[in-house]
Amino acid sequence: MCEKISYTFEIEIYKKETKMNNIGLYWEFHRSTLFLNLVVSVGSVLLTKSFLFIPITMMTAGPFLSFFHKEITAKNEYYFYYNRGITKVKLIVISQLANIITGSIIFVILLKCQAS
Q1: CA distances (Å), 26 to each of 37, 56, 85, 96, in order?
Q2: Rounded to an integer, what distance in angstroms lies between the CA atom of residue 4 and that of residue 7?
Q3: Which of 31, 51, 77, 109 has its CA 20 to 30 A from that of 59?
């Protein structure tokens, strides 16, 4: 009986450690797409002369171009994540959610600054 409890406890610890490691992997993938996303977002300001396009581009065109660039230049990198139990779709969805959250926060801040 004690061995079964110990074994179950070890499995639960392993699952928690794996989830924590996966969060770091999601962050690493998002961070690798962030630079190009920010360059595209700042470039949109230069073209439109409006700072409100930074968060809009950060949520739409920036991630699209970042993922496209990643698909072309670092296609084999997805195997690294897949071997750790993270699919390409999960990586893109989580990264896009992070872009939407960040872009929304920046959009609200810019709107409040413009209203003042």
Answers
A1: 16, 22, 11, 11
A2: 5
A3: 77
Q: How many CB atoms within 10 Å of residue 106?
A: 18
Distance of alpha carbon 116 from alpha carbon 111, whole angstroms: 9
Report domain extents, the chain.
2-115
Q: pTM for the full model? A: 0.78
Distance CA 81, CA 94 (A): 13
* 3-class secondary structure, 82: helix
Kindly report, residue by residue over 33-48, the tens digit of the pLDDT.
999 999 999 998 899 8
Residue 96 CB partners (closer than 8 Å, separation 6+): 63
Give tens-digit pLDDT for 19-74.
Answer: 667 888 999 999 999 999 999 999 988 998 888 888 999 999 999 999 999 999 98
CA 88 to each of CA 25, 71, 85, 93: distance values in angstroms, whole numbers, following the listed order:
12, 10, 10, 9
